[in-house]
Amino acid sequence: MVANVLEINPERLWESLERSAEIGRFRDVGLRRLALSAEDKQMRDLFVEWAKTAGCKVEIDRLGNIFARRTGSDPTLPPVAIGSHLDTQICGGRYDGILGVLCGLEVVRTLNDRGLQTKRGIEIICWTNEEGARFSPPMMGSMAFARQIPLESVLATTDDDGITVAQALDEIGYAGAAPIGRAFDCYLELHIEQAPVLDREGCDVGIVVGGYKTRALRLTIKGDTGHAGGTPMAMRRNAQVGAGYVIAAVNDIGLGYAVDEGRTTTTRIESFPNLPGTYAEQVKLTIDYRHIDPARFEAMSKAVEAAIAESAKKANVEIDVATGWSWGTELFAPECIDLLRATAKELGLPYREMRSQAGHDAYAVATMAPTAMIFTPCHDGISHNVNEAIELTRSVPGANLLLNAAVARANR
Question: Which of 100, 115, 128 is nearest to 44 (CA)?
């Protein structure tokens, strides 16, 4: 690190991460902290306490998005926002989203340590339900904030137990009074990579220049239920068989495109009546496919469509297809990417430019404010898994890049 630049307190950051890891601990090394659960409330409460102790003004909007602002010398200017999420997957790790939020808090704490005031405020954001593990779609809080999905439909969304987002927000006390939407000068998000590139290359900083073209489809497969023993095979319209054909075909498409970074999977299966002695009359699938190249993505899309049609014919069922969510490849503002590049060079930090294979709240915010992302390594790229792991020494360079870039932007 060169002289006269800011550095975070690594030990304090790690202590905060370890305290977070106690809330919703799952299988000893991981976390289960589903959005708007009791565990999520406990972590939110702790973050709000930390933010207020650091001198931030905290506001919460109707979706439970939390905004903790450190005031700048000119409060009329829109702030520099730093954000991510605190909720986890059902078998989640300790760092996905959480590292980004706590690095944002560390930015504020470091400025407090140094007695420095920025011209613009710095606002730390915790977005609601980024993971989509309890309520679907993922990135729900940020997408509704950016007006990409209607607030009313979000509040009416139910989990598997029939509890709505509105009810869950009320239950944990996070249905806030702040209006949906506000202005940012820019938005910066630090996140673990969730892929093995940085870890394998021994590089500690990724500057994210875009994402993979991504689409999720929601399939409803319709057949007829019948007796598992008595119904002749030729008479069956087994929705689960149709689902099986789709699942296998979609996976094969991903394998065929893997050579140039294609990805496909089936992420969710719901079967009715899902009982022994009978076969299914209806199955719902969510499938997900991604590619770094838009043209190859469109070719994958046509292959998926053809596979669905062929599966329906082969299983003698009907398959209805609805688009779930999607995002593109050119996401982030050149001015913010240039800021990260220039700051990394000033700090003497080697970095790699890369595209994100995962979805992030930054994708939604990028539709309404200049946005960029920083990636830090995670061991073997393991994520959405209790064995997700990071090394503090390899996370500090990205945190220092976030700190210095945010301050430079906030003082312009």
Answer: 128
Half-sphere exposure of residue 57: CA atoms within 13 angstroms, side-chain side? 9
Report pLDDT digits (tens) over 10-43.
Answer: 999 999 999 999 999 999 999 999 999 999 999 9
At 112, the amino acid letter reads N
| Beta pairing class for 80-85 and 122-127 | parallel
Which residue in 57, 23, 25, 52 sits closest to 40, CA to CA? 23
Residues 172-185: b if buried by 16+ CB within 10 A, e if exposed: bebbbeeebebebb
Q: Which domains does the chain have, with CATH numbers?
A: 10-212+329-410 (3.40.630.10), 213-327 (3.30.70.360)
Per-residue model confidence (pLDDT) at position 4 = 64
CA dist 83 and 80 (Å) reads 10
Which residues of the chain have a pLDDT value below 50?
A: 1-3
State the pTM of this model.
0.91
Between strands 30-31 and 25-26, the pairing is antiparallel
- DSSP-assigned letter for residue 92: B
Contacts of 252 (CB under 8 A, 6+ apart): none
Question: What b-and-e string marks burial along 326-355, b requiring 16 or more CB atoms within 10 Å of the CB?
Answer: ebebebbeeebbebbbebbeebebebeebb
315-368 per-position pLDDT tens digit: 999 999 998 888 877 789 999 999 999 999 999 999 999 999 899 999 999 999
